[in-house]
Every structure is written in C-alpha cells, then in structure tokens.
C-alpha cells in the first residue's frame, strides 16, 4: 500500500469521520422533514441500472436507525471520536482506504445480491412486472445501509485499542476488546440466522475489516512502538536537521512545534521512554519489552 500512498496519498480526505457524521446528520433531517425522499436515496442496484445513478452516493446519507434524539447525538459523537482517533493513528490515507473499501464492498454486494436473486428466482421476478421488480429491490436495498460500515469502524477501533475502557450504559466500565468480541458474536449469529439479504449485507459491509486485518501486511502499524519509529523517521526526513523538538507523541508523532498548546506526558506503565500527547495518553496500548 505504501507505493499507492506515495502516489495518491495527497488526495486523501482529512477528517473523513466528521464528513461521514455530517452526512448522517443530513439524513436524520431528511427523515424528519421529508421521510418519503429516503426511498429515492437507498442503494438499489435495479434503480441504478435504470438511470438513478445518484443512489451510488446518496445511500451514505441514510443513517443507522435510532428514534431517540439523545442517543442519536451520542452515537454521532462516538463514531466521530473513534474515527478521528483511528485516522490520527493509522494516517489519513490508510483510514480513507479502510472506509471507502467498506463502501465499495457494500455497493458490490448489493449488485451481487441482485444477480444472485435473478439466478434463483428469475421466473418469479418476471411475473411481478417492471414496477413489481422495482418495488422488490427497493425493499431489499434497505438492508444495505451504513450500519455495518459503522460496525466495521468500531471493530477496527477495538482491534487497534483493545485495552481502552468505555462506560457501558454510562455506568459499567468495560474494555473495548470485550465489546468487540460481543459485537462479533452478534454479527456471526445474525449472519447465520438471517436470510439471504442479511447475509449479503453483513458479508459485503464487513469484508473491509477482514481484508484489512487478516490479509494486510500493514498490521505492524498497529503496534505503538513501530508507529513511533515510522513517524519519527518520516518527520526526520521531512524536516532534516532544521527542527529539534523536546516533545513528540509516540502515536501520532505530533510535537510542541505542531501543537504549541498541546500537553505531553510520559506513560509510567510503558517500558521505555514513550511520550504521548494528551489525546493519546489514555488511549494507547502500553508497550512491554520482550
């Protein structure tokens, strides 16, 4: 991926989590003010092939279902927070690849499902007529939403920062890795118990998580010690001998030159001289010497 990053890294979208959450906010407003429009925004491959190509993009506006406005705001803030943390840890380019990969797999999965449906039930679909087929695939398109894409963000965060604690139900402290395990079990159960539509939606939306963490050679970047070395090398090459700093975060590589107002602290639980900025002081994985 490094060769592609050199070539296309400059086109990566910064603060992509904020952009995605902003799309959700727009989607919630549409649901409240004009709910009938939502049906023209879903990821329906049948409608796309019949000229409604805007659906390739607008399905991202459809937010995960949540009727309580309070929990909606909490959810938006949570996904924006963990997404921003992943972007700072992985780098903007890698985070962009991860999210767009998930979206592309979701789109591909919806088209594969349509083809599979025609293969199995072609005669039955023909009896519905063009309008009936359009309505059928409109209903199927509701399975392909950003819900599982968001789930892949959370699973990525749990895999990257397994020891971070969060408050379940705002009261019970629990490590993120256990929440990741619980969500993983729920997803596997949903996949096994769900119908064909559910199976395609889950498999397509979460395939980026599988690809990124099972087959990728860049898993080593998830180690704080190696992230520190990479960031240090890149900054030394970029700055040369011009900039000598006193503080540097072992996760994101920021110094007091980059963020003059930022506080830096050494972690007493890490073995070695590892310093972190205030954003990563309590979220990093402690380094233990072998």
Features:
290 residues; mainly alpha; two-stranded antiparallel ribbon; two-stranded antiparallel sheet; 10 helices; 4 strands; 5% strand
Tell me what the structure shows.
With 290 residues, this protein is mainly alpha-helical. 60% of the residues lie in helices and 5% in strands. It is built from ten helices and four strands; from the N terminus they run αααααααββαααββ. The two termini are 29 Å apart. Mean pLDDT is 81; it is low at 217-222.
Brief overview:
The chain contains 10 helices and 4 strands.
What topology emerges from the helices and strands here?
Layout: H1 2-8, H2 16-33, H3 45-49, H4 55-58, H5 69-90, H6 92-141, H7 147-160, E1 165-168, E2 172-175, H8 176-193, H9 196-215, H10 224-239, E3 264-266, E4 275-277
Antiparallel strand pairs: 1-2, 3-4
Helix pairs in contact: 2-5, 5-6, 5-7, 6-9, 7-8, 7-9, 8-9
SS element count, helices: 10
What's the helical proportion of residues?
55-70%
Topology pattern, helix = H, strand = E: HHHHHHHEEHHHEE
Low-confidence stretches are: 217-222
Distance between the termini: 29 Å
Mean pLDDT: 81
Structural class: mainly alpha
* Spatial extent as radius of gyration: 22 Å
Counting DSSP E segments of at least 2 residues, the number of strands comes to 4
Biggest sheet character: 2 strands, antiparallel
């Amino acid at each position: 991926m490094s060769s592609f990053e050199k070539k296309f890294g400059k086109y990566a979208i910064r603060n992509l989590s904020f952009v995605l959450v902003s799309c959700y906010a727009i989607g919630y407003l549409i649901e409240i003010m004009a709910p009938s429009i939502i049906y023209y925004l879903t990821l329906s491959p049948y409608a796309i092939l019949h000229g409604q190509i805007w659906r390739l993009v607008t399905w991202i506006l459809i937010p995960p279902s949540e009727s309580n406005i309070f929990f909606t705001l909490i959810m938006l803030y949570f996904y924006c927070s963990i997404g921003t943390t992943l972007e700072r840890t992985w780098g903007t380019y890698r985070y962009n690849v991860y999210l767009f990969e998930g979206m592309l797999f979701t789109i591909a999965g919806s088209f594969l499902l349509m083809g599979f449906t025609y293969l199995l039930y072609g005669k039955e679909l023909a009896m519905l007529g063009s309008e009936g087929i359009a309505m059928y695939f409109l209903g199927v398109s509701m399975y392909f939403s950003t819900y599982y894409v968001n789930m892949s963000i959370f699973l990525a965060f749990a895999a990257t920062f397994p020891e971070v604690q969060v408050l379940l139900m705002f009261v019970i402290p629990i490590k993120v890795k256990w929440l990741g395990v619980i969500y993983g079990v729920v997803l596997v159960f949903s996949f096994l118990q769900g119908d064909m539509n559910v199976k395609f939606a889950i498999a397509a939306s979460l395939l980026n998580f599988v690809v990124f963490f099972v087959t990728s050679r860049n898993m080593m970047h998830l180690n704080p010690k190696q992230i520190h070395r990479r960031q240090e090398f890149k900054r030394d090459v970029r700055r040369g001998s011009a900039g000598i700093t006193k503080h540097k975060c072992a996760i994101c590589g920021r110094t007091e030159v980059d963020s003059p107002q930022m506080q830096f602290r050494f972690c007493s639980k890490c073995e070695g001289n590892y310093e972190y900025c205030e954003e990563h002081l309590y979220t990093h994985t402690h380094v233990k010497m072998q």
